[in-house]
Amino acid sequence: MARARAVLLGSLLVLAAAAWTVLVWQSSMTGIDDVENMLTMDMGAPLFLAIWVAMMVAMMFPTAAPMFLTFAHVQQRKQGRGKPYVPTWVFVASYLAIWTSFGALAYVAALGATDLADSSMWVMDNAARIGGGVLILAGLYQLSPLKSICLSKCRAPMAFVLTSWRDGYGGALRMGLEHGLYCLGCCWLFFVIVFPLGMMNVALLAVIVLVIFAEKSLPFGPRASQLAAAALVAYGTLVMLEPDALPTAM
Questions:
Q1: Which of 187, 191, 214, 234 could cross-link 224 (Cys pair, CB 3.0–4.6 Å)?
Q2: Using CA atoms, how far apart are residues 22 and 36, in angstroms rounded to an integer?
């Protein structure tokens, strides 16, 4: 069982490392002049979703690894007792489906925002301040009851598995979707802010991963959420006052 857990963890880390390699390569291929004020970076839907999935694997697999390992541990115990079991990839795939769906919605919203900016001079002139408002919203959400509920589910993998357990492949799919929704509820605005700050800003993505990992896995997770909230509100307020403080507005 220990060997199986090591193989699973190693596989997750390899996938995450490969995804980070893709993101770094894509970032090096995309200059700042190409992404300025272009929320989709002129990508078609297939390429955008491919990059989005790579981003999710790179950023969420390391932070969701405790949940994946807990699910695998329970399934391995069932297998060891000769009972029907479900491969962990079923749970992981349905979890990733939630984030992929969110990426599709984000792409549609980005297209709409780009069209709005093209047709409205006011939106174009105030794009940075709108981005600052998004940052403030993200900070306030960090302090919301919904964020706390979703984060509590992510911080207690065994409790989630015990209270949400469903047998069979259909049950594993449902559990993956349910955990994906909690994870989305916990972190979705972290991925909204990459649009005003730069989707291919690898340094920003790394900081977001560290914040999410701290929130989910470290003893001071709730305090990390509060610190992130303060930083987002402060930075958003600065951008509202000084739009050039936003990297994509420079």
A1: 214
A2: 21
Question: How many other C-beta atoms are found inside a 10 Å radius of the C-beta of residue 228?
Answer: 21
Instruction: For residues 131 and 243, give the distance between their C-alpha atoms in angstroms, rounded to a whole number.
Output: 9
Show me where the domains of the chain are located.
2-249
Q: CA angle, 85 as apex, 82 and 88 as ends, to 5°?
A: 140
Instruction: Output b/e per residue, 117-149; b: 16+ Cβ within 10 A.
Output: beeeeeeeebbbbbbbbbbbbbbebbeeeebee
CA dihedral for 111, 113, 117, 119, sign (positive or negative): positive
The answer to whether residues 136 and 233 touch, using CB atoms and an 8 Å cutoff, is: yes
Got the DSSP string for 205-237?
HHHHHHHHHHHHHSTTHHHHHHHHHHHHHHHHH
* pLDDT 10s digits, 116-171: 878 888 888 888 899 999 999 999 999 999 999 999 999 999 999 989 999 999 99
